[in-house]
Amino acid sequence: MKTKISSIIGSLFVLIPLWWFIGVEQFVWLLVGSLLLFRRFRLKKSSLFYILFVVFQIFSLLSLEEPYRMITFFRTWLSYVVGLIFFIVATNYIRNKRDALVLIRSLSIFFAFSSFISILGIFGVWRPQFVSLIGRFLPEFITNTVYGSAIAIKTIGSTDFFYGLGYYFRVSSFWSFAGMYAFGIAIFVPVSIWCIIYDKKLRLWHTLTFLGVSFSLIFTTARVAIIAVLATSLIVLTIKSSWFLRIILGVVLLWVLLLTGLFAIDDIFGLFLYRSFNDRLDIYTETIKWILRNPLFGYATERDVSTVLYPLGSHSTYLGILFKYGIFGFTAWICYIFLVVKNLLQTKATFARFSLWSVCIASIICLSDAIDLDTLNLVVFSVVVGLGLSSETWDNRKQELREALVTT
To answer: Both ends of the chain: CA-CA distance in Å?
Structure first.
């Protein structure tokens, strides 16, 4: 039955292109994940803080003043619930090497296909735009929103301008936004490197996948995501690591360094022409002012004000959680992350180290991006972290792992 669970989750990842075409890629996880929990499981301490976080989110509804934002609240809340479900599933039901490899390889297949689609868009071979099946039935007041339009109108990116690159195709693949695609890739990069090192049978496949997602990451032009990969790679390079890992990380650094000049040019021009830095600073400053007015339970959702360009509580996971769910919600979330990091550090399995790397990358990106904008990222994050925490039961002996990789 456990193998069946890993196969079900793996199938969900592999079939994401189908869910995307239908328009249910944000919702299918809740249905299937809930069905998987109809069996006995044990909660880790980190799970308890995650549950507290979800509960405190509900209390924040007491401060909701705009009824039309109720839909926004439940969309975000359900995204975190989905993340909790798959965290529990990954920490409870993946207990042997074969199950873990089924899930990891399925994740790799999905990211390989997402990068392939992205590359088609980058080179102008295929840039689809169509109405999803579910989008044909959504009411207009939903499709007129930014999030609703992403569900109804399917594209894999859009034309944008970047100093140093000029006009280019900014890819989002199967994610709602390019920044969220970059977030997902950045979380997956350490997993991809783990696959290259330990899954020797499929090393060529994993290497091509790694190169594909790295190339796609560049064309998301998500600066913080790329910097997060660079910064954490430098840290990993300073610790004792194998020659093969050093080569792989060297490739990561090469991709990033080649574009450092382009990013610098874009930031310099953008600072003076588009005031992007000042716009973000205005959002953060005004968000903090509002947090101080209602610090305990927050405002439930982001809020529009006339003095700033974007909603308050946006463009940062940390400030967003503090703004929307108050000190109680923020404390619960930080305790969850703290316990995850602590447990991963105490786990001696090799995959746990790479999972910790993903957590570090995500923590950096969360400074300037909201992880809850796309349910898929919360699912990927929860699965990678959950596999890391359970890896001591399936990745505790390198020789056994190699044997399993050869026979599966």
So the answer is: 17
